[in-house]
Amino acid sequence: MKKLIPLLVCLCLLFTMLPSLAEVPSVNGTVTSIDKYGHAILDITIEDFNAQGYELGDIVSVKVGQFEGDMPYLNGY
Question: What domain range includes position 28?
């Protein structure tokens, strides 16, 4: 019985964290062009992106074709 109590406490903590883990915002878009410097121009506006809860300095996961990586959300190149 003594071993069961810590296990139950851990499970309760885990279940209280699950809703926050599932609330990762997602934004999908399409590359509309590539500028002369090689930057991809998307059909996602800054307003749409920020409306999902993202802020400058956040690390976002990006997937393009087979590429997947984490990148900072910055203002500039």
Answer: 24-77
Residue 68, classed as helix, strand or coil, is strand
- Give me the pLDDT at residue 1, please: 55
Dihedral Cα 46, 47, 52, 58, nearest 10 deg = 40
Radius of gyration of the chain (CA): 19
Q: Which of 7, 17, 62 is nearest to 74 (CA)?
A: 62
User: Has residue 64 been placed in a domain?
Assistant: yes
pLDDT on residue 6:
65
CA angle 34, 39, 41 (to 5 degrees): 60
Q: What tens digit of pLDDT does each residue of 1-60 get?
A: 556 666 666 555 555 655 555 566 778 888 899 889 888 888 988 888 888 888 899 888
CB 71 within 8 A of CB 57: no
